[in-house]
Specification:
The chain is an alpha/beta fold.
């Protein structure tokens, strides 16, 4: 990106350099700033992480203990408070797999009404590959009170929302909602039900009828940092989307699709974007749910 090209909004996306310049603030016990690494494999954090970062395990800390769902408001509040995060804390999240799980946490923060959350561009891999400071020391921050008011699920889609989209496709008077399947083309076509090594899956392969296949990785460059605003706008305009169009993103379990939700809703300013976190694991297991295969 050259110096004259518009940049992404700094209130939602910050550079690794921005984080590195503020490590002293992230390491303080006061809840003004908190750096959070979220991975699907907790051994990554245990091996090394940015100084002052707290580690969250996406599979345990950020999933409900009651059923397959995001944490309840009470569970979310407990995890945040236990890690020294207050309602007015400036939280910066980053993680593995080019920020799959970090953007999923960002999306959860949006549901639970946290005002100041940002993603560190490039994630864990970029931080390590560019020799930013690391440590294996686990910080201990004082617990604080964290409260969750009424959740705002306007950024979340459920299966009944997807069924409404399919019903509306046959109604010429209804506004069209675009479904974006961000999985690999092989998953979209039904040749693979899940990426290799993934154990949470569906009975059938394919995609939701009418969904576009726009790979999550098209949002980032080879260095795993988000592409420029112009490149991202061109990507989605090329698929016929406009900023006022309603969109629902999905993948296998909602984590890859949170990258695309973040790009559309937070970086490009699309106003009506929802992440269907039930995604293919739910849809591909439901009796009589319509499915398409192939291109």
């Amino acid at each position: 990106m050259n110096a004259h090209e518009p940049s992404h909004p700094a209130d939602v996306l910050v550079s690794p350099e921005w984080v590195a310049d503020r490590l002293d603030e992230f390491e303080r016990d006061t809840p003004d700033y908190r750096l959070v690494e979220v991975d699907v494999n907790p051994s990554f954090y245990a091996e090394r992480h940015a100084p002052g970062a707290v580690g969250l395990d996406w599979q345990t800390d950020l999933q409900s203990g009651r059923w397959r769902d995001i944490p309840t408001p009470e569970e979310f509040a407990r995890v945040m408070g236990d890690h020294g995060i207050a309602n007015d804390t400036t939280v910066v999240v980053y993680g593995d797999n080019a920020n799959w799980f970090a953007t999923h946490l960002y999306w959860q923060f949006s549901i639970y009404g946290h005002d100041d959350v940002r993603v560190m561009d490039g994630g864990r891999e970029y931080w390590l590959e560019h020799d930013f400071p690391t440590t294996d020391e686990v910080p201990s921050f004082s617990s604080v009170e964290y409260t969750v008011a009424e959740p705002d699920e306007s950024v979340r889609a459920f299966r009944h929302d997807v069924y409404e989209v399919l019903d509306d496709a046959d109604d010429s008077d209804s506004e069209d909602t675009t479904l974006i399947d961000v999985r690999m083309p092989e998953e979209y076509r039904g040749e693979l039900i899940a990426p290799p090594g993934m154990d949470e899956t569906a009975r059938r392969g394919g995609h939701i009828p009418g969904a576009l296949n726009v790979l999550w990785a098209d949002n980032v460059g080879p260095d795993r940092r988000f592409k420029s605003p112009a490149a991202l706008a061109e990507l989605y305009e090329g698929h016929g989307l406009a900023p006022d169009d309603p969109v629902i993103t999905y993948c296998r379990i909602g984590e890859r699709s949170s990258i695309t939700w973040f790009v559309l809703h937070e970086l490009l300013g699309y106003e009506r974007v929802q992440n269907y976190d039930g995604s293919w694991t739910e849809w591909g297991n439901m009796i009589r749910a319509p499915i398409e295969t192939g291109e």
